[in-house]
């Protein structure tokens, strides 16, 4: 992602209509530069997921503008947004969202299948992505044969197999214990620092947010605080990467 992703102009997003309309986001003015690592925090119901859905081009704001690499996303058709997502964005979810009874390899290949890549291109790219998350040798395991942390690593491999400019992660460590959470954060940090991928992550946990270099706090659908993290974690805690090979 060159240039800026801007989400501004009193960006507002509502659910429902008329008097029943609920404004999940109000007066949002947010500029994100390529290469940033942003943690989005805030209480339950404060609009974090709504904002992520707009940033991820899954939804459009009911009022205001969202520019992604200069494109006015709010005026794109559903298909154009889908193409933009396939080309530039990778998603990681709290619940991993892997296909059951489907191997890690096939799960990771899925975005490439949608893109029309050949079987051999898919196989090579998926193997490379799985190796990069420490899961070389686990290609043929299905989600039920993998731990939660391993399943989330498969989901990260799936998110990066298309070489996206931006990875959006909504509570990626929400279902994991502390140690596994730090492993996932080390991976996301590596994507950002080593591969230059912009990372936008929602988290409730301050221990995980400290990996980001910028923290945006939502309260009641507004940005209450947007500041640089004075002490970001810049490398994985010792021993973590070595342990990650299984
Ligand atoms: N599909 C929907 N229809 C109607 N209201 C919705 C919908 N999705 C979210 N909302 C409402 O919008 C507001 C913001 O919700 P959102 O999911 O963005 O919060 P959040 O900050 O992600 O919360 P959490 O930490 O619990 O995930 C809430 O009041 C929620 O009830
Ligand atoms: Mg949410």
Principal-axes geometry comes out as globular
Percent range for β-strand residues? 25-35%
Please trace the helix and strand order, writing H or E for each element: EEEHEEHEHHHEHEHEEH
Strands across the major sheet, in which order? Answer: 6-7-8-3-9-10
| Amino-to-carboxy terminus distance | 32 Å
Bound molecules: adenosine-5'-triphosphate, magnesium ion
- Helicity, in percent? 25-40%
Please identify, by name, the CATH architecture of the domain at 35-47 and 85-243: 3-Layer(aba) Sandwich
Describe this structure in words.
It is a single chain. With 246 residues, this protein is α/β, with parallel strands linked by helices. The protein has a domain at 35-47 and 85-243: 3-Layer(aba) Sandwich (Rossmann fold). It contains eight helices and ten strands. The chain has a six-stranded mixed sheet, with helices on both faces. A four-stranded antiparallel sheet has the order 2-1-4-5, covered by helices on one side. Helix 3 packs across helix 4 and helix 5 (148-160) runs parallel beside helix 6 (178-195). The longest helix has 18 residues, at 178-195. Adenosine-5'-triphosphate binds at residues 15, 22, 24, 42, 44-50.
Attribute tags:
246 residues, alpha/beta, Rossmann fold, six-stranded mixed beta sheet, four-stranded antiparallel beta sheet, 8 helices, 10 strands, binds adenosine-5'-triphosphate, binds magnesium ion
């Amino acid at each position: 992602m060159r240039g800026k992703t801007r989400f501004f102009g009193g960006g507002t997003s509502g659910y429902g209509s008329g008097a029943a309309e609920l404004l999940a986001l109000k007066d949002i003015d947010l500029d994100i530069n390529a290469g940033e690592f942003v943690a989005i925090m805030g209480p339950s119901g404060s609009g974090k997921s709504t904002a992520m859905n707009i940033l991820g081009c899954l939804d459009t704001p009911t009022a205001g503008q969202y520019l992604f690499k200069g494109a006015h996303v709010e005026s794109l058709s559903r298909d154009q947004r889908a193409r933009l997502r396939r080309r530039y964005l990778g998603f990681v979810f709290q619940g991993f969202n892997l296909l059951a009874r489907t191997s890690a390899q096939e799960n990771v290949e899925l975005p490439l299948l949608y893109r029309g890549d050949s079987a051999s291109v898919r196989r090579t790219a998926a193997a490379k992505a799985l190796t990069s998350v420490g899961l070389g040798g686990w290609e043929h395991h299905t989600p039920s044969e993998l731990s939660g942390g391993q399943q989330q690593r498969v989901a990260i491999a799936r998110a990066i197999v298309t070489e996206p400019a931006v990875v959006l992660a909504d509570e990626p460590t929400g279902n994991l214990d502390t140690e596994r959470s730090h492993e996932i954060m080390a991976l996301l940090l590596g994507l950002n620092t080593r591969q230059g991928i912009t990372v936008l992550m929602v988290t409730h946990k301050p221990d995980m947010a400290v990996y980001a270099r910028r923290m945006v706090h939502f309260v009641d659908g507004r940005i209450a605080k947007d500041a640089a993290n004075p002490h970001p974690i810049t490398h994985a805690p010792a021993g973590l990467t070595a342990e990650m090979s299984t």
